[in-house]
Amino acid sequence: DIQMTQSPSTLAASVGDRVTITCRASQSINSYLAWYQQKPGKAPKLLIYTASSLETGVPSRFSGSGSGTEFTLTISSLQPDDFATYFCQQYDSYSTFGQGTKVEIK
Amino acid sequence: EVQLAESGGGLVQPGGSLRLSCVASGFTFSNYWMHWVRQAPGKGLVWVSRINNDESTITYADSVKGRFTISRDNAKNTLYLQMNSLRAEDTAMYYCARSKVVGATMFDYWGQGTLVTVSS
Fold first, then answer.
1. Do B44 and A87 touch (CB under 8 A)?
2. CB contact set of A102 (below 8 Å; sequence gap of 6+)
3. Which candidate among A68, B5, B10, B49 keeps its CA 20 to 30 Å from the CA of A12?
4. Cβ separation of A87 and B100 shorter than 8 Å?
5. Which DSSP state fits A9?
6. Of the candidates A42, A94, A98, which has its C-beta nearest B59's C-beta?
7. DSSP string for B46-103
8. Does B107 touch chain A (CB under 8 A)?
9. A99 touches chain B (CB under 8 A)
10. Band of the pLDDT at A12, cuts 50, 70, 90?
11. Which residues, 6+ apart, have CB-to-CB distance to B49 below 8 Å?
12. Is some CB atom of chain A closer than 8 A to the CB atom of B5?
């Protein structure tokens, strides 16, 4: 099974900060990597797919990069609505999610 | 507007059964692969099962294989998950989700979830 490791687990940041979250796969997943945002009590929301494609309706401050085994999600200027937990997901072989990164207010 | 609405969760004893339903609206249900994903309280997301348009392709996570059965009724726009021999570790919020791309286990729409609690 493909394992996905996210870092950090928790991140404290301020509005306006540039935030980067990393996701590493235990083997190459090509570009079959998605990022989701989840707020408490809500379902996840797709942000990025195929490593760098922005889902329709998602603000352009979100971006994704990477291929193979190392990927990043970047929020260029953190907004109040962005405080949430972020999950990466590989879908090269069925599906595995990372353990999540909680973005908290500093 | 695409909507997915799960139901059928609840409290069940270990060894018991539950059937979850997910009613879809706002899109042509029969054109899409569908999935179940679960999330234990305070934990991460775990993909459970997938089914293609005509039920000819069905896949399960190893943790539920032989105990859970996914199915769909395209005439009723409904996805199901029959869960048997339930264990405490099956306690989770269960989400149905739609594949964004045919065959891809990546999801563009999710329901609000239904909570399954397995406890004596």
1. yes
2. A9, A10, A11, A84, A85
3. A68
4. no
5. S
6. A94
7. EEEEEE-TTSS-EEE-TTTTTTEEEEEETTTTEEEEEE-S--GGG-EEEEEEEESSTT
8. yes
9. yes
10. very high
11. B35, B36, B58, B59, B60, B61, B64, B68, B70, B81
12. no
Contacts of B108 in chain A (CB under 8 A): 46, 55
Give the full edge-to-edge strand order of the sheet including A4-7. Answer: A4-7, A19-25, A70-75, A62-67
Q: Which two tokens mark B3?
A: 């909507």
* Amino acid at residue number B97: A
Enumerate the β-bridge partners of residue A53.
A49
Place of tokens 């990546």: B106
Q: Per the structure block, which two tokens stand in for B66?
A: 């032989």
How far off is chain A from B47, nearest CA to CA, in Å?
Answer: 6
Per-residue pLDDT tens over the stretch A36-61: 999 999 999 999 999 999 999 999 99
pLDDT given at position B55? 95
Residue A9 has pLDDT above 90, yes or no: yes
Cα B51 to the center of its chain, rounded Å? 10
